Amino acid sequence: MAGRKLGFWRRLAVWLVLPALRVWTKRTWTGVENLPPGGGFIVTPNHMSQFDPLLVAHFIYDSGRWPRFLAKASIWRVPFVGFMLRKTQQIPVERGSVEAVKSLDSLIDALHQGGVVVIYPEGTTTREPDLWPMRGKTGAARLALVTGAPVVPMATWGAQQVHDVRTGKVSLGRRVPVRVSAGKPVDLSRWQREAPTRAVLEQMTEAIQLATRDLLAELRDEQPPPLYQVSRRTWNTGTDGVGERSEGHEDMRKDGGA
């Protein structure tokens, strides 16, 4: 199980976070059987609240694995928080810089070591008014193409009851109902031997995001809309486009490394 062989710092993180989450939320996990039982894989959740990463982490931990999140490097500069992120093997990324390439190398190493890497393809919380997923950046697709690692879509619902990005409201109520569902790995086999061109990566990203959107529709029991598209100027405030530059620049590695 995930609680074994964690070492001191990861055990401490679990001790600090999990008891609060168990009081704070009433959890429903579905699709745990869709997580690959061994080896490295990529998880691509929707992102609608600053609270949902904790739910994703809890879900993966309960499955017996340890999550390694890709997140903006500025968080690592927050006292104590950054220290704990380093100690718990999370991975920082500086978008629009050469450091983004180093982040991709770290992610590749994590997957080769059998790790579970969590990437939010949207790169930020959704701007869609009803909290449906947006179109994604291509970092997760690029990583999948480079490594061949499975991509597991994941949807969360209920985190907005704790923190709603539309209003900024935070609720400290007990036993908030939250749901997390993992889908079967996305079938990306048609692109397996393709060069990582912009068109290929965007097609892969759309397949990944549609799988996540459809999972969310099941959780919400609603008909999903098309993937939401925001302006590039707004979108580039995100953080998870591994191997991408900001608007007006080419990919970090034109010929497909990352």
Estimate the strand proportion: 5-15%
Question: What structural class do helix, strand and pairing data support?
Answer: alpha/beta
Largest sheet: 7 strands, mixed
Shape by Cα distribution: globular
Separation of the first and last Cα atoms: 33 Å
Q: Please tally the helical runs, counting DSSP H or I stretches of 4 or more residues.
A: 7
Average pLDDT, to the nearest integer?
87
| Helix share bin | 25-40%
Q: Unreliable stretches, pLDDT < 50, 5 or more residues? A: 245-258
Q: How do the strands line up in the largest sheet?
A: 1-7-6-2-5-3-4
What is the gyration radius calculated from CA atoms? 17 Å
Number of strands: 7
What order do the helices and strands follow? HEEHEHEHEHEEHH
Secondary-structure map:
Elements: H1 7-24, E1 25-30, E2 41-45, H2 52-62, E3 67-72, H3 81-87, E4 91-93, H4 99-112, E5 116-118, H5 139-147, E6 151-157, E7 176-182, H6 198-220, H7 232-235
Parallel strand pairs: 1-7, 2-5, 2-6, 3-4, 3-5
Antiparallel strand pairs: 6-7
